[in-house]
Design brief:
TIM Barrel, 263 residues, eight-stranded parallel β-sheet
């Protein structure tokens, strides 16, 4: 039996109108494709109670807490981040990081927020979920300066180059690939995916964004991760069974607070 993990998505952002405003059909479609665990990732503090309720309702859905780097107007109360991050159901800190593509001007605030997340993760001993876009040098520098290697984590939806991936790997981080890797023009991402050691690779949907081929341009959901897994297994020249087994093991090795499903 193939067992896959969607290591990063935003279930609370899905349009559930066609499913009767219920997550259950989404979860069932995912299970049919072998997806038995999903990490629902926080992007702001105001929605955390919503994603916490989802996780408490569905044991196969984990959650994180953090503020996305593009959330400029989001108030980030460090005490609240620490309190929520300390909950047993929270298995990671983030999504955090740097994004110089969508945010411009003086981004000192973004850099300081990233540092704060790293410090909280270290205090709570929980791995980081790192977003980086057009900010390679600063992302790595801050991770090194703040000793992010002490907790590790994942470079989510990785679309940068091999030198950056190698630096993150050297700090003990995992590299996660989304449906972007299946795009015909994603040659640089595909080259990185060939080089990342299989025991340090994760996969994700980032749903409702970045649906893989053949659903590119449509709303994404956890079930579609099977297409990304099939693509990467072929790219690596291994069976889907081996790929699924290794990437799922990787997930539970990194996110030790997640409860592995019995399937």
């Amino acid at each position: 039996m193939i067992v896959l993990v969607d290591s990063h998505c935003h279930l609370h952002m899905l349009d559930l109108t066609a499913d009767g405003n219920s997550l259950q059909p989404v979860i069932e479609r995912a299970r049919v494709q072998g997806v038995h665990y999903i990490l629902n990732v926080s992007v702001n503090m105001r929605d955390f109670p919503v994603i916490a309720r989802i996780s408490h309702t569905y044991p196969s859905i984990g959650l994180s807490v953090g503020v996305h780097p593009n959330e400029r107007d989001e108030e980030m109360d460090v005490a609240t981040l620490l309190r929520w991050g300390n909950e047993a159901s929270v298995i990671a800190i983030g999504e955090t990081g740097l994004d110089y593509f969508r945010s411009t001007g003086d981004l000192t605030w973004q850099q300081e927020r990233f540092r704060t997340h790293i410090r909280v993760a270290k205090q709570l001993n929980k791995p980081l979920i790192v977003h980086t876009r057009q900010a390679k040098d600063d992302t790595i520098s801050i991770m090194q300066e703040e000793r992010a290697n002490e907790v590790g984590g994942v470079m989510h939806c990785f679309t940068e180059d091999w030198p950056m991936a190698k630096q993150a790997l050297d700090m003990g981080f995992y590299i996660s690939f989304s449906g972007v890797v299946t795009f015909k023009n994603a040659h640089s991402v595909q080259e990185v995916a060939k080089q990342v050691p299989l025991h340090r690779m994760l996969i994700e949907t980032d749903a409702p964004y970045l649906a893989p081929e053949p659903y590119r341009g449509k709303p994404n959901e956890p079930a579609y991760i099977r297409h990304t897994a099939d693509y990467l297994a072929t790219l690596r020249g291994i069976s889907i069974d081996e790929f699924a087994r290794q990437t799922s093991n990787n997930f539970f090795s990194l996110f030790t607070g997640a409860v592995r499903p019995h399937v």
